[in-house]
Amino acid sequence: MSEDVFKKIVSHCKEYGFVFQSSEIYDGLSAVYDYGQMGVELKNNIKKYWWDSMVLLNENVVGIDSAIFMHPTIWKASGHVDAFNDPLIDNKDSKKRYRADVLIEDYLAKIDDKVNKEVEKAAKRFGESFDEAMFRQTNPRVLENQAKRDEVHARFAKALNDSNLEELRQIILDCEIVDPISGTRNWTEVRQFNLMFSTEMGSTADGAMKVYLRPETAQGIFVNFLNVQKTGRMKIPFGIAQIGKAFRNEIVARQFIFRMREFEQMEMQFFVRPGEELDWFAKWKEVRMKWHKSLGFGDNKYRFHDHDKLAHYANAATDIEFEMPFGFKEVEGIHSRTDFDLASHEKFSGKKLQYFDPELNKSYTPYVIETSIGVDRMFLSTLSAAYAEEVLEDGETRVVLRLPAALAPIKLAVLPLVKKDGLPEKAREIIDTLKFDFKCQYDEKDSIGKRYRRQDAIGTPYCVTVDHQSLQDNTVTIRYRDTMQQERVAIDKLSDIIADKVSMKNLLKTIG
Ligand code: GAP
């Protein structure tokens, strides 16, 4: 897939009511988006799939909904006040600001692309007899590029680990990375920039307090750890899940809803015995990958990417990356955060956050495995995978969203063949019986072909057409989105046919 397809997806999102630029009539607010009438349904279905997979399928995972505002010391304890920074660099000619690490990552990705293209070309040339591993080990151009990549990558990882801003700049200079806009290498120094938004709580006369808009939902879970453990009589290992808004003053806001300043996270902190965390880390990696793959977009679209730079509190971390139209990108992070957060909150609050383990007959600060996925990135990956343009037998093209039926915003469209003869009334009757279970849409405007196309474009898995025969024998034509096949079925069979495919339960059964 290409940038070109990505542009089409972005305009499709707007045209069909999935995503709008925030404050559009005022020329927009950068990196902030609104979800429209279709988008909110898809987003809610994604959230339900995640929430149910956590709190329905796991007896020992419960949910909470904590406030966005929290005591400012929380962000001192978590390390966000001092260390939630991005290294930024400006180009003096274009006056544009970039993340230094992203410039280098993009450079590395370009080398990867070069190598992969070389391999693909050779695979085509040699056909069946192609030995990819051998080719990678022996081809001089591949070896040269690989060596260059490894060298830059090693320097980059070290610079990040040491927070060495001068070295980051030097890598940019040495690799001759140019500003994509001005095309020049006229770079400033690299500086740290804190990503948290702040505001004031209370009136100034009372002595206003500086508070932050939370940059992650996780801290709301940590500070409620004992509340939930005690009131829920939870025994370790157990998890707390939460879905909610998070805010980051991203420097480089691009790629649509991939990197936003206001976004939504679905996070789960799993509290375990110290020493058992790496086993649980492996377990949650597996569980979360299965959750993604169960959507049926193809296993090759996902990969793990282990972190080069481990945060000081983590002893393992990986990302689940998805193949977006602009390459493999992080959708979810899975982190083994040790006892860093709870221990730090103990220190800053002066309150004990320990668990008494009756089996071991001792108290300890639990270790934590975190799974953290962005709703908006999940939304974007779902749309990217589902979006297809097809040339039909009659030469026409259709745009179809091949969304998993359980996630589709509208499950069923009911279409009277004509706007008269009692067909609209019959169509409404069908909706009135099905609307309690499925999100339905009624549409009587334009030709039936146009109406099918509109439903394809929003990913509706079923269209039901009511015609004159329906009035006589209570049957309708049901059309399937993916195959476009149609069949005549009894109206009272519709509920069963649809329920089977669109049910969240059946999707959850593939992972539970
Ligand atoms: N509590 C851990 C944490 O917040 P993170 O890797 O910074 O970890 C987790 O974020 C996930 O949140 C990411 O994998 C991504 O899906 C999402 N996310 C982070 N920043 C985002 C942004 N600016 N816009 C959209 N989604 C974002």
Automatic annotation (TrEMBL):
Catalytic activity: tRNA(Gly) + glycine + ATP = glycyl-tRNA(Gly) + AMP + diphosphate
Residues that, per the record, bind substrate: 99, 216, 263-267, 370-374
GO molecular function, one term: glycine-tRNA ligase activity
A GO CC term attached to the entry: cytoplasm
EC identifiers of the protein: 6.1.1.14
Residues annotated as binding ATP: 248-250, 258-263, 330-331, 374-377
Locations listed in the record: Cytoplasm
Pfam family, one: HGTP_anticodon
Keywords associated with the record: Aminoacyl-tRNA synthetase, ATP-binding, Cytoplasm, Ligase, Nucleotide-binding, Protein biosynthesis
InterPro entries cross-referenced by the UniProt entry: aa-tRNA-synt_IIb, aa-tRNA-synth_II, aa-tRNA-synth_II/BPL/LPL, Anticodon-bd, Anticodon-bd_dom_sf, Gly-tRNA_synthase/POLG2, Gly_tRNA_ligase_bac, GlyRS-like_core
Domain Aminoacyl-transfer RNA synthetases class-II family profile, first and last residues per copy: 176-416
Superkingdom of origin: Bacteria
GO biological process: one example: glycyl-tRNA aminoacylation
Family statement: Belongs to the class-II aminoacyl-tRNA synthetase family.
Assembly with partners or alone: Homodimer.
Its job: Catalyzes the attachment of glycine to tRNA(Gly).
UniProt protein name: Glycine--tRNA ligase
Species whose genome carries this gene: Dysgonomonas mossii DSM 22836
Lineage: Bacteria, Pseudomonadati, Bacteroidota, Bacteroidia, Bacteroidales
